[in-house]
Amino acid sequence: MFIYFSDCFFEGLEEKEDAKSFFEDALISFSKGGHFVCFEPKSGDPLLLSDWLGQRSKAVIKVIQKRYSLYMSLLMNMGFGVCVTGGEVFYNKYCSVVLPWGNAGEGFFNKARLVGENLVDSKLYEHAAKHYLISKRLFSAVSISVEKIGGGGSTTAQVFEGSCNDGYVTVCLCDSDRGYEGGGYKETAGLVIAKLDADRYPFSAVKILDSKELENLIPVNVYQSIYPDGEQSENISFIESLLKSCDINFYPYLDIKDGIKWRVLIGGSRGAEFSNYWVEIADWMQRSSRDLKCECRADSRDDCECFLIPGISENALNRVLDRFDGASDHRNYESMMDAEEWLSCGETVARFACAPKDILRS
To answer: Which of 35, 138, 158, 288 could make a disulfide contact with 133, Cβ separation 3.0–4.6 Å?
Structure first.
């Protein structure tokens, strides 16, 4: 995250022991690649002559002074920053949040925390942030520094709130679990939204997916590359052929793990709107001469295991993560560069988890 120290913070700093410790903690965070730190170059000159800062901290100040123009440009590009003041609250044209230094929590200078519904999700969102930086040509100057946390599914809201209460910069991304276009958020997403409080947690963010789940953000061609043969490959090819010819873009709401079964539509167990949405797609499939007959010959519709559209795999995201971990960020980005919602998630993470590269090389 970008932390900008206003001129007023430095007024009378020599006489404020707690404020001096706070500033030095900021420099340490910067030197360890935790957060960007920036201030007007002239504000750093007296600090270079002080006897309360060590040589390493003074070296960091010189780096910040030299790269001031670059860092301010990056701050403008990222679109989010925290302005630290000496106690005043006022408008700052560079930053979204103005923070009197005494109001920062204990974990403020630690790595930002990225809370997903599980650890695999969090790791993939970190990749999304790197892909976003590549898409904006910022990757050479900006890294992603984040502590990845799994929310435990139904406990994600509590984990997010706990991290915010501890004063950490925290961003939480959560599935919407909506099963059709225009559907509402399910319970976990609703609980997370309820915990978001911009006044209490000004350096935190929540993003609920527009799509059903993180699986829906991964393009079909990526799944095809990690499942080149077998039943999963056949299912992926079927989904891909439908997407190319169907007028309705159902992919954001498809259950990638389990697919859509006939009995769910016939029985109406997920509500009329869900059934109506997928029945419309079934009608289109019939008009397109696709065979939609039930083949399991079940005695009861509740026992029918036939698919309208098959899923891919319960472990699809694990396979995607293995693929992304095993290749360069630039190579992975090539397969995700048109995935708009994926890159939007990456932007959200990058705003809070961006960190400097090559800190003491100057």
So the answer is: 138
